[in-house]
Amino acid sequence: MIADVQSSRAAPATSTKADTDPELVAGQLGALLRRLFLDPRADHLGAIEDKNLSLAQVRALFILAGAETPITAGDLAERVGLSPAAISRSLEALVRRRLVTRRESSRDRRVRLVEIATRGEAIVEELIALRRAGLQRFIADMEPERRAQLSAALAAIEDDR
Question: Which of the pair, 63 or 2, is modelled with greater confidence?
Answer without folding.
Answer: 63
